[in-house]
Amino acid sequence: MITSPSRRGPRVKTALVLGAASLLAAACGSSGGGGTGPGASAAGQTVPTAHLPVLKAIGKGEGQLNLIAWEGYLNPIWVKPFEQQTGCTVNAKYAGSSDEMVALMRNGGGGQYDMVSSSGDADLRILYAGDAHPVNIGLIPSWNQFFPAFKSPPFNTIGGVHYGVSLQWGPNVLMYSQKAFATAPTSWDVIYNPKYKGQVTVPDNPIQIADAALYLKTHNPALKITDPYELTQPQFQAAVRLLAGQRPLIEKYWALASQEIFDFKNGNATVGAGWPYQVSALKAVHFPIGDTIPSEGATGWADTWMLAAKAPHPNCAYMWMRYISTPKVQAEQAVNYGETPDNMLACAYMNQLQKGSCAQYHANAPTSYFNSIALWKTPIATCDNGKPDCVPYAQWVAAWNTQVK
């Protein structure tokens, strides 16, 4: 197998098989269909590979499938049956960050990699670099069972052209020790409050700037922030200043889920931003941990199995997309990894695998819960209104490393 040491633990997510079948695709934003043609975004940008021909039918498998994935996404529980059913041997290259995934996908995966389990903070970088291949979604039958919001979301579908298939998603929650908080905090302001100096922990990730922007959207309306991922320079600098002011309060910028679990368990941290995985892990050892989505809402991630522009094993790749989209397999990943499946029918399988897991990961939550989550997307210079006023991701990275930390 193709392997590499992972630099982080499960990058977990919470589950939310939204109970309302009427969930609209608009909940995640438009599908990017406002451009000038296939592959054009609402802002008029074009994906270089948009006009590449898609597979018309799945042929005989090539015997191999090379996948770039988050650690935990290629569990033998669901990988082994796939290999037995298809004859496609899965070779895993585990990435430790979205930046690493973007790098591995350069030049269309270099003719080495077939797919990547990319997150919203990487998707558009991969797409607009021309490193992803259009997908014939008609060859993925279970796609019809997806919640509408995840059928053609703007992070993997541009101008009506699909470049992969949605997988799982979840929110970034406010975690708090019930030893320190008798009741759940109602606002993210606790992680910016000097009262908790040395007790706060947040992810070591430039996309955390969006969390600060989401907070400022409510608490500083004069900034006129409408989208935490589309920030003008004044809005961006305000978010960076907020995070720089938070730095003295930070016990640790965590890169591994295990680090945050350790810090809460040992009393080093009492409040912070995290994932449902850490919450579940702490509850499993009977630590009094709580989690909530505060009044300002929360950010969240959504992952996609994206097809590489130069995938060497396209038939096995389509077999994988078809397989990983089925409700039973989605449920297996959701329960084992701690996240939300995109297939509406997965919830029942989750409860068969682990009693109460559907509710545990908010898989039966109301639509209002989903609507409170601002899913990750790659910050780019061209705003959705077509104006080149937004701060691109490279500046987010620079600010995080030089002004925040």
Protein described:
With 405 residues, this protein is α/β, with parallel strands linked by helices. It folds into two domains: 25-169 and 302-345, D-Maltodextrin-Binding Protein, domain 2 (3-Layer(aba) Sandwich), CATH 3.40.190; 171-299 and 396-404, D-Maltodextrin-Binding Protein, domain 2 (3-Layer(aba) Sandwich), CATH 3.40.190.10. Helices cover 30% and strands 17% of the residues. The chain has helices at 76-86, 98-104, 120-128, 208-219, 233-246, 257-265, 276-284, 314-324, 327-338, 346-353, 357-360, 367-371, 393-404, and strands spanning 64-70, 89-95, 115-119, 157-158, 161-162, 164-171, 173-177, 200-203, 250-254, 271-274, 289-292, 298-307, 340-341, 373-375. The strands form three sheets. Strands 1, 2, 3, 6, 12, 13 and 14 form a seven-stranded mixed sheet that branches. The chain is globular. The two termini are 36 Å apart. 54% of the residues are buried. The model is unreliable at 1-36 (pLDDT under 50).
